[in-house]
Design brief:
heterodimer; A: alpha/beta; Pyruvate-ferredoxin Oxidoreductase, domain 3; six-stranded mixed sheet; 6 strands; globular; B: alpha/beta; Rossmann fold; 4 domains; 19 helices
Chain lengths: 191, 630
């Protein structure tokens, strides 16, 4: 059983990334459950998605302290959920910083030392400059696919599976950019 | 063929496979995507009704005509629909009628966490609860059969974790349907005069007895014997969590949770040493089981009444009672690494037309009686410009009630705005439940100011059509309900339309209307930037003029941020990729430091300057055009 928690900011494509992962798990013959919350959180709020696959999956929710991988599309949202990992679990996060609304309103500060704090909080951390890679791939919106590429070597899915599913789920005009994004993500050496 | 479907998508698929001809709903998290998915099946007539009561009645009508009908709503929507629901219990059905109630334990996107299982007992209706998407589809089809077999509407209850979780579902086909060409009248059954209703009530009571008998043998209820030391009764998402926490225990998994199978439960009790009832929210099953005289060894004495569960919560609670066979990995409770991280609450989008209105309302210090929608975010900092919010449409009636008991200002005295209540309501909420309270104000001579934030969509739930958008759920053109004409037709004389992005105008008009000694409606009309994909040119900060006073940050916009300048001071930066050019922050600035596009000053501009790097995606604007679906 693999427990993968994805975190990010409303609008970053957390739901789409979860969809790709669940389709890949299905294609590889696993039982899969995926859960997310819609609603108020999507207005720029903190967003999480739970993905679980393996032989038989009961709960759609991961229990805090048992996630194998935390895949975070934003630095603060990585630190916020790092305690969801099991001992020995892996953080893969995008170094992007997005100010939450209390920071934008001058009511709070974004931690200036966020990368150091993440590293201090967890032994297995891998940082990805996903926005720069997405831009290099030709679409800044492909950050979520860069992150999937980055984490792909830790997951038991064949290269063809990834490609087939990415081709199927992204808008036709963005297929090439998204496949490039995935490849660039893969080159960021998590494994 | 198999597909990964959410519970909501599976319900829609189940409706199609069950031969449903009509589906009606009002959007509400976590139920909204059911009808959005149903609308993808062109052989089902589907509609967004103006509110849940109407949806319920439309469904009942279709049922009386002989069609299978699906009606969907969030938990609090059932409160709105309760009036027809309770009497539909008496009339029964012709075509199967299923009401989906989507409950929201933990209140991810709701104003309360009421447990709608109680409606089944109260309205004397059967209650079906799926535990995943597979069951959502299969059980829905059974629910339609039950409805017709027992001549009753059926309550079909999901929770957020059923509605918004996905798993693999085997797809089936839709049966061929015979067209409905004539209505068969059954006046005694459908006309609930006292003389007829009196005859229907005993039928309802007998129906419950028949259903309880059916519950003993239905495949909706399943016994799965494992370790006989531990018996767990559960349903819905709680079953999945309990199963993960105690994989070897014996389970009575209930899919029909009202009425309960007394014999089956008694037998299960006999076959296990200890019996636990694991359910979120109210002790609904536990109390019914104890009323049967069956002993329960653990239930709400061990598990919380509030919020939602997860496997770890159940593992810890039952392990504390030495229940054997726990999945030990689930027991530790890890603490957040950092307690002082800034929160990331939801927030109004950059360019949102609500922003200026709340900034002015905060300044005016009036009592803002709010309502349900994106604009409820006006309650959060930095606006803090909403002082009450109860239910759909209540903004207007609450403001009116306050206004009617407030002493009028003494002759010649200055108007104290702190003694004024103002209602703030969105367009879709106005159509849902705002019409009648506004009619009340007009009729009873109220003097309340009502602000209708008309952004031409149902924003918070993901931008659904409504009677003001000119389109239906099925994509057909529709007449546009004209709000000013409606208000004038009610007898409101002061009806003013304003541009909410012009704060000077907003403040002038609000002050004028607050001073008026009669009811008034101000319609702040500006389309939702997210749903209508409006992208205006970003504004700029003139770094030489910005003195870092932070006044513009009162706009509460994530396109603004403070940066360190070379002198060690702080200045405001506008993130060009986030800014949607509404100009509210510029109107707040006293130093003309925020500059419109195309009027860039000769001096250097601060846009795009370094540290701390902070860029973000435009809300709803993601890699594969993922649609925001709150």
């Amino acid at each position: 059983m693999i427990n993968l928690l994805i975190s990010g900011v409303g609008g970053q494509g957390v739901v789409l990334a979860s969809y790709v992962l669940s389709q890949a798990a299905m294609a590889e013959g696993y039982d899969v459950k995926q859960s997310e919350v819609h609603g108020m959180s999507q207005r720029g709020g903190s967003v999480t998605s739970h993905l679980r696959f393996g032989g038989k999956v009961w709960s759609p929710l991961i229990t805090p302290g048992t996630a194998d991988i935390l895949l975070s599309f934003e630095a603060l949202e990585a630190l916020r959920y790092v305690h969801w990992l099991r001992p020995g679990g892996l953080v893969v996060y995008n170094t992007l910083r997005v100010n939450p609304s209390p920071v934008a309103a001058g009511l709070a500060e974004y931690p200036a030392d966020i990368d150091e704090r993440i590293k201090a909080a967890w032994p297995r951390v891998h940082a990805v400059e996903a926005n720069a890679l997405a831009e290099a791939a030709g679409s800044v919106k492909s950050v979520n696919v860069v992150m999937l590429g980055a984490v792909s070597c830790t997951l038991p899915f064949a290269a063809e599976t990834w490609e087939t599913i990415i081709r199927r789920v992204v808008p036709p005009k963005t297929v090439d950019a998204n496949l490039r994004a995935f490849e660039l993500g893969k080159r960021s050496p998590v494994c | 063929m198999r597909e990964i479907l959410s519970g909501n998508e599976a319900i829609a698929r189940g409706a199609w496979e069950a031969g449903v001809r009509l589906a009606a709903a009002y959007p509400g998290t976590p139920s909204t995507e059911i009808l959005e998915a149903v609308a993808g099946y062109q052989d089902i007539y589907s509609e967004w009704s103006p509110n849940e009561k109407v949806a319920m009645e439309v469904g009942l009508g279709a049922s009386m005509a002989g069609a299978r009908a699906l009606v969907c709503m969030k938990h609090v929507g059932v409160n709105v629909a309760a009036d027809p629901l309770f009497t539909a219990s008496y009339t029964g059905v012709k075509g199967g009628l299923v009401l989906v109630t989507a409950d929201d334990p933990a209140m991810h996107s709701s104003q309360n966490e009421q447990d709608n299982r109680n409606y089944a007992k109260f309205a004397k209706l059967p209650l079906v609860e799926p535990a995943d998407s597979t069951e959502a589809k299969d059980f829905l089809k059974i629910a339609f059969e039950l409805s017709e077999r027992f001549d009753t509407p059926v309550l079909f209850r999901t929770t957020t974790r059923i509605a918004h979780s996905k798993n693999l579902v085997e797809l089936g086909d839709r049966p061929a349907l015979t067209p409905i060409t004539i209505f068969e009248k059954a006046t005694d059954k459908y006309t609930m005069l006292p003389s007829n209703a009196i005859k229907r009530h005993p039928i309802v009571e007998q129906r419950l007895l028949d259903l309880a008998e059916y519950a003993e043998t239905t495949l909706l209820n399943q016994v799965d014997m494992g370790d006989s030391r531990v018996g767990i009764i559960a349903s819905g998402a709680a079953y999945q969590y309990a199963r993960e926490a105690f994989p070897e225990a014996s389970f009575l998994k209930l899919g029909l949770t009202y009425p309960l199978p007394a014999g089956l439960i008694a037998d299960f009790r006999e076959s296990v040493e200890k019996l636990y009832v694991v359910e979120e929210l109210d002790p609904f099953l536990e109390e019914l089981i104890e009323l049967m005289g069956i002993r329960v060894d653990g239930g709400k004495d061990m598990l919380p009444l509030c919020g939602e569960f997860d496997p770890g919560l159940i593992a810890r609670a039952l392990a504390a009672d030495d229940v054997p066979g726990v999945t030990t990995d689930l027991i530790p409770v890890p603490r957040p690494v950092d307690d002082d991280l800034p929160n990331r609450p939801p927030t109004l989008c950059p360019g949102c037309s609500h922003r200026g209105v709340f900034t002015v309302l905060k300044k005016l210090k009036v009592f803002v009686s709010g309502d349900i929608g994106c604009y409820t975010l006006g309650a959060l900092p930095p606006f803090e410009a909403m002082n009450s919010c109860v239910c759909m449409g209540a903004s207007i009636s609450i403001a009116h009630g306050m206004g009617q008991v407030t002493a009028p200002p003494a002759e010649g005295a200055k108007l104290d705005l702190r003694a004024k209540s103002v209602a703030v309501i969105g367009d879709s909420t106005f159509f849902h439940s705002g019409l009648t309270p506004l009619l009340d104000i007009a009729y009873n001579g109220g003097r309340t100011l009502t602000i209708i934030l008309d952004n031409r969509t149902t924003g918070m739930t993901g931008g659904q059509e409504n009677p003001g958008t000119g389109k239906t759920l099925m994509g057909r053109p529709a007449p546009v309900a004209d709000i000013p004409t409606i208000c004038r037709g009610f007898g409101i004389n002061r009806v003013i339309e304003i541009d909410p992005l012009d704060m000077t105008e907003v403040e002038r008009v609000l002050r004028e209307e607050l001073a008026a000694n009669e009811a008034s409606v101000v319609i702040a009309k500006s389309p939702c930037v997210l749903e209508y994909k409006i992208k205006r040119e970003p504004w700029f900060v003139d770094a030489d003029l910005c003195n870092g006073c932070k006044r513009c940050l009162q706009a509460g916009c994530i396109a603004l941020s403070l940066i360190n300048d070379a002198d060690g001071g702080r200045k405001v930066q506008i993130l060009a990729d986030q800014c949607n050019g509404c100009g509210i922050c510029a109107q707040l600035c006293r130093f003309e430091a925020i500059v419109a596009p195309g009027t860039a000053p000769a001096r250097g501009v601060a846009s795009g300057s370094p540290a701390p790097p902070a860029v973000a995606p435009a809300p709803g604007d993601t890699a594969a055009g993922e649609k925001g679906a709150p």
